[in-house]
Design goal:
Largest sheet of chain A: 5 strands, mixed
Number of helices of chain A: 12
Pfam families (chains A, B): ROK (PF00480)
Number of domains of chain A: 3
Family (chains A, B): Belongs to the ROK (NagC/XylR) family.
CATH class of the largest domain in chain A: Alpha Beta
Shape of chain A: globular
Oligomer: homodimer
Largest interface: A-B, 48 and 48 residues
GO molecular function, one term (chains A, B): kinase activity
CATH topology of the largest domain in chain A: Nucleotidyltransferase, domain 5
InterPro entries (chains A, B): ATPase_NBD (IPR043129), ROK (IPR000600), WH_DNA-bd_sf (IPR036390)
Keywords (chains A, B): Kinase, Transferase
Strand content of chain A: 15-25%
Order of helices and strands of chain A: HEHHEEEEEHEEHEEEHHHHEHHEH
Radius of gyration of chain A: 23 Å
CATH architecture of the largest domain in chain A: 2-Layer Sandwich
Structural class of chain A: alpha/beta
Chain lengths: 387, 387
Amino acid sequence: MDQNETDAPKPALTGSARAVFRQLVEGGPSTRPHIGSSLSLSRPTMSAAIAELERPQYVEMIGAVRGALGRSAAQYRVGSGAGHVIAVDAGSTHVRLRVSTLDRRLLTSRVLRLPVSQISMNEEVSRAVAAEVAAAQAAMRPSWGPLRAMGLALPTRVVGPTGDVASTRQEIVFSAFTPPPGVALVLENNVNCAAVAEQHYGAARGAQSFAYVQVGLKIGMGLVLGEQLVRGRNGAAGEIGHLSFPFAPGASPQPGEAEHYLGTEAFMARVRADWPEAAGDAPADTAELLAIAGSGHVEALRHVARHALDIGAVIATCVSVVDPGLVVLGGGLGASPLLLPGVAEAANRLSYPVEIRNTLLGADATVLGIERLAIEAAMAVLLGDEA
Amino acid sequence: MDQNETDAPKPALTGSARAVFRQLVEGGPSTRPHIGSSLSLSRPTMSAAIAELERPQYVEMIGAVRGALGRSAAQYRVGSGAGHVIAVDAGSTHVRLRVSTLDRRLLTSRVLRLPVSQISMNEEVSRAVAAEVAAAQAAMRPSWGPLRAMGLALPTRVVGPTGDVASTRQEIVFSAFTPPPGVALVLENNVNCAAVAEQHYGAARGAQSFAYVQVGLKIGMGLVLGEQLVRGRNGAAGEIGHLSFPFAPGASPQPGEAEHYLGTEAFMARVRADWPEAAGDAPADTAELLAIAGSGHVEALRHVARHALDIGAVIATCVSVVDPGLVVLGGGLGASPLLLPGVAEAANRLSYPVEIRNTLLGADATVLGIERLAIEAAMAVLLGDEA
DNA sequence: TTTGTTAGTTAGGCTGCCTAACACAAAAAG
DNA sequence: CTTTTTGTGTTAGGCAGCCTAACTAACAAA
């Protein structure tokens, strides 16, 4: 795994070179003096670092930038030697794939709509992933450099190799798909991925802690506390669909009932059951419900408000446990601004102050998140785990 | 605050010296070769580090240890120049105080039983804290070195200076007590302190993540995820007494009701209401209830089991949110091994696998935790914040 | 007393950063 | 056109903080 013939034999970079590389990966192309000042490195140190990074083509010069005065500054970006990553969102309705450089320049992307909505991970999805990855690899060009890492976002709980892998369905992705050998592989839950994406590129940018709550077919949460994604011992952190319900004196709570009560299915069933004949045909799905609610339909608005209150109550529960200060709503229902005020009102009334925001990334959140995690894995490979 | 006449003027230690100092603070007295090998420092580097640390008396030699063969090794410990810390647990029934060196050698300790159980922070407690601290400072001896930090564990929510201080009652401690000027001051919630103590010295030693759940007069949780204490934006992480309740279809949840339902008061009220005449007088308090349950009283056992189930349900909620993998039970009721099996059964049935353990530290947990936090603050002062 | 083993010091080297001073490029001033 | 000004990049040399190698010191067993 380590002595691949295309790999440079462990460059063992100096600290400043690593810092410069990280800066280019995270901040995108930049000039030498700019990087130097932002990392407070002296010009000689910058020279040495750049020279070190240019040898294995980890970085490359892409031109010169003229300021108002004085000599123009050389601009650099991550080079082909740094390689690329493949990120796959193996979702229940789509398979989304992105191939990108470590500084997130998109090399290819693919979206496959699955023939039937697969409620959970199964072999059908695995085959789709295999096909998409094969297609992406066939399109690979030498200028992309070596494949450094591959990330897979799964709609299942994900546990590390030390955990109880058997109890999750995470292994099913590999029933028809074999990941490229000798490449770092990252598995992560799709909601956690979306949280990571919102953290770095979306509605939670700059927040130290927050919760991403996905409200759609199922309900789930991704938790970031102190800039760290919280996974949990069983990969179950944020599995708020698994909350037991009801929780009241005398009632006997059932595990996992929250999902059944708060998921789209049950919600729409309640809407249909409670839809007055006078109001016309009940909406067929949540999209339609949201559409007519958005145009002022009172009956629809009432149901949306009621659901917002339920979601708000669940969020209040999470706030009382971890007090994240910020919640980003995503998913089919959560992305709608119609839900937001009701959720915010209920959550704040029932618990401690929380700001509630809508997602900024929508359906792309998951791929972008797993891409980020794959890039982090690639960096660990290139720079050698520490920090 | 920085140029106190008793303070050494910023020694600016080298990295290895800091590592050695930290090792002595955390691991207690040790020999030079032992520290060197455990930090993988060469003998010359060790020499330099020790010399550096002996100058300001941060460490001192306390003897020589003879191995089976060869020259004896010099043994060192944290010296008087490192100073000491004061840790105070301003609890609702007791004020507990510890004065200790940075390597946790106890210099004095005091325990004051408050005349009446103060349900919350008030001026009475503040006066008691002032008196105890004054007594401790009067007993101070020159060999203790300078006071480096002081920690205060409070039975309130605690927020940092950036937070909304007014909404907590944390400022009330200072109504009759003025902390020593120019000394780092650490405030922390008492349950969080207990969690920190269990993390380092108690039932959660070695666990990366866990929740400490205090079950007593009130119910609260301290959360440690990835070895980091989770405080929350409003200092409200772990405020599970504030969970809204009931949570069921049609019911309207009330904020903070969980505390009323799960606290000792309400619990004992239910016990009394449901106590059959044939079973004799109902127990007066939880201690008595636990005592007769422990000796096999079926009626008492039934109530304990019922309460264990309720606690287990709350823990299951927490597990579905953060999945800590381990829960340590503490507090008046939680410390009892009678509760444990019922809690473990319910929590595991309703959520994901969690190990449940009893506290190992009991009533001392909180002081030990705030002591630890004060020591960490003192280290930050001595070594200059980083890492 | 000798020998073997471990503890600690001294001498000297290497790495990774720094500052100072100089060479280079490009616009502005003469 | 030079010349000046200003910012970019390189070369030379220094210093902190670690290392290895080799020596001295202390102690037990032969």
